[in-house]
Structure formats: C-alpha cells, structure tokens
Design brief:
The protein has about 350 residues and is of the alpha/beta class. It has a domain of about 210 residues: NAD(P)-binding Rossmann-like Domain (Rossmann fold), CATH 3.40.50.720. The strands form four sheets. The chain has a seven-stranded parallel β-sheet with strand order 3-2-1-4-5-6-11, sandwiched between helices. A two-stranded parallel ribbon has the order 7-10. The protein has a two-stranded parallel sheet with strand order 8-13. The two termini are about 35 Å apart. The model has no long low-confidence stretch (mean pLDDT about 95). Bound molecules: UDP-4-deoxy-4-formamido-beta-L-arabinopyranose.
Length: about 350
C-alpha cells in the first residue's frame, strides 16, 4: 500500500517513514531538500533495510504536484509534513510562509479531492492554542489568534482541510504536536537544524558537544515552579508512531468524523531547567548555561491533555524525557563524528 510522506527527509518526517516501513507500507518520500539532505535516506535504510522511493519536488509548483499524482495513481494516503516551520523567520518573511505552507497544501488537496476516497494526515501544532487559559490543553481549547505567520499557516491549513473534506472524499486527521525532541535510538536519524538552532534541545546538545559556548535560558521570572517556561516534550519516535496509528484509523475507516483533531504530547509539563537537568543526568555532562531576558513571543506554559489521543486514537507515549535526552545526545555525538 503506497503512502506519500511530504517533507519525509525532515526531522519528524524521517522518523515517520521508518515507522511506516516497520509496518510494511511502501513509502514515497517527497522533499525539496530546503531543510534536509539526501543522506537521511541512508539513515532510514540503515534502520529498516529498505530505501524509500524519493522524489525531489517542490510542492509550491502546481504542475509538479499534478504530474506526481498522475504518475502515482495508486496512492492510498498522504502524510503532509512539508512546510516552513521557524516561528521567528515567519515574522520577518510572512509571504515565504503563506506561499510555501498554504499553496503546497492547496495543490496537494486539489489532487486528493479527485480521488474516490483519500486519507490525509496533517502536521499541525499546539501553537494554534497560543497561551491557553487552562492546563492541560485539550482539543476543545479555543484556537487563539496566531502569534506568528507560521502559527497562522497551521490554523488556516486546518480550516482549508475542514472545508475541503465537507465536499470531497477526503478524510483527514489533524495532529497538533507539542514539542518534538530526541532522535531514533540507533542514532541513524535525528534533528539536523540548519545554522543556529532555535529550539531548546538541539541547542543543549550542541552546547554539550562544544559547538556552542553556552545555552541562554530565556527568562526565569515566569509564574512557574522554577521560573522557567513549561512545555510538553514528546519523543519524536512516539510522535512518529502516532502518525501510523492515525493513518490506519482512516484506512480502516474507524474515524467518527471526516476531520478529527488530536493533541500529541506526553501530558506532562517540563520546565527548561528540568530539561537541562534531565540532559545532565543522562549525559553525565555539566551544561554551561546562563539565565537571560525572556524571548519575545514565548508563552509561559503548554502541555497536552492526552485523554482523546489515548482513548479515541488508542495511542500514548511510551518514552520518557530522559530517553529523549539520551537519544538526542547520542545523535549529536554521532553527527559530530564522536565515537560513542
Ligand atoms: C522551548 C522553551 C524557550 C531555546 C517551537 C514552536 C512550535 C513548535 C516547537 C513547530 C521555551 C526555551 C529555547 C534556547 C531557551 N514548532 N529556550 N533557550 O518555542 O516552545 O515551540 O518549537 O511546530 O511551533 O513555537 O520551542 O524549543 O524554541 O523553546 O531557553 O536557546 O525553551 O524560551 O521556553 P517552543 P523551543
């Protein structure tokens, strides 16, 4: 059964390709290599023994998308990761985000709506909730006005999918991720941020490996246990498995509605300092960090209510924050050529 994974050489995409192959699916990866390299294909092959079909395509080109679906008529499902995802960059370059994240989605859906029944998994984000008033955050929590063009493209994407599903054979599941972290335990694939990492965990591992001189902790004056922000850090392998469970829910026609939404998190909030301490514990390294001013746009706290994912989707996280730190550290050392 052929499944297309757009952005399949990216961080979450590559881990999802591995889990799809582990379940026996034939995977076609589409990626424009704007934020990934073809080497990731070797990593996937090293884990599963199977190299997925790969097509270097840019989904912003409508004719390219049309041609792809003309050449692959027997596609059963699409898991759509391909998007620009840097919050800060989106503020400075909104049209890059609207063109890439929205146009690509529209062209994909235009091909899927031609099919009798199509199954679509959309990579969304807890960022749609902004600073939710109540913790933990469940799927009925109000979506708030996006704080960035990136977040807005996720909200608009969800609305487009809902509208198209009403008038087509498309069945969709929107997956709202909390904070994906860690790497595959084999250290064959992992997060490869280009340039200076924006996210916490790659900055921690790059500091520990000596690439960065120190980690800056953005504020310790928040109304939380230790003053630093709270997030729900979910192991990327758990997150990848959730995509296969969601896809099979649609393939097996178990979905209750044409479009369903699930929060994907551990249900546990961890502070920045707790993440640092977890990393220090598993790595045995003392991390060099200093507390500085808050980062503009950061929310105080966000962690998931996992009841719906556990009870309806039938999925829950298995891996811990420490296991995520351990895999992230093993991956960082591997990438820097340090024998582990
Ligand atoms: C986590 C915490 C920072 C870096 C972002 C996107 C979100 C999603 C996940 C795509 C915050 C603190 C960070 C550093 C720090 N991406 N931090 N020093 O901002 O929760 O979410 O990534 O969907 O859409 O917004 O993740 O890892 O950037 O920050 O102190 O060098 O770590 O202040 O409290 P965030 P993050």
């Amino acid at each position: 059964m052929k499944i297309v994974v757009t952005g399949g050489l990216g961080f979450i995409g590559s881990h999802t390709v591995v889990e799809l192959q582990n379940k026996g699916y034939e995977v076609i990866v589409i990626d424009n290599l704007s934020n990934a390299t073809e080497d990731v294909l070797q990593g996937i092959t090293a884990i599963t023994g199977t190299t997925p079909l790969f097509e270097k395509l840019d989904l912003r080109e409508k004719a390219v998308v049309q041609d792809f679906f003309k050449r692959h008529q027997d596609i059963k499902g699409v898991i759509h990761f391909a998007a620009s995802k840097a919050v800060g960059e989106s503020v400075g370059n909104p049209l890059l985000y609207y063109e890439n994240n929205i146009n690509s989605l529209v062209y994909l859906l235009q091909e899927l709506e031609k099919k009798e029944d199509a199954h679509f998994i959309f990579s969304s984000s807890c960022t749609v909730y902004g600073q939710a008033k109540v913790m933990p955050i469940d799927e009925n929590t109000a979506v708030q006005t996006a704080l960035s063009p990136y977040g807005n493209t996720k909200q608009i994407g969800e609305e487009i999918i809902s509208d198209v599903a009403k008038t087509s054979g498309i069945n969709a599941i929107l997956l709202r991720y909390f904070n994906p972290v860690g790497a595959h335990p084999t250290a064959e694939i992992g997060e490869l941020p280009l340039g200076v990492p924006q996210n916490l965990v790659p900055f921690i591992t790059q500091t520990a490996v000596g690439l960065r001189s120190e980690l800056l902790v953005y504020g310790d004056d928040y109304p939380t246990t230790d003053g630093t922000c709270i997030r729900d850090y979910i192991h990327v392998v758990d997150l990848a498995k959730a995509h296969v469970v969601a896809l099979e829910r649609l393939l097996d026609k178990k979905n209750n509605e044409k479009v369903e939404t699930f929060n994907l998190g551990t249900g546990v909030g961890s502070s920045v300092l707790e993440v640092i301490h977890a990393f220090e514990k598993v790595s045995g390294k003392k991390l060099n960090y200093s507390i500085v001013d808050r980062r503009a746009g950061d929310i105080t706290s966000a962690f998931a209510n996992t009841d719906k994912a556990n009870e309806v989707l039938g999925w829950k996280t298995q891996l811990t924050l420490e296991q995520a730190m351990e895999s992230a550290w093993k991956w960082e050392q591997k990438v820097r050529g340090i024998t582990i």
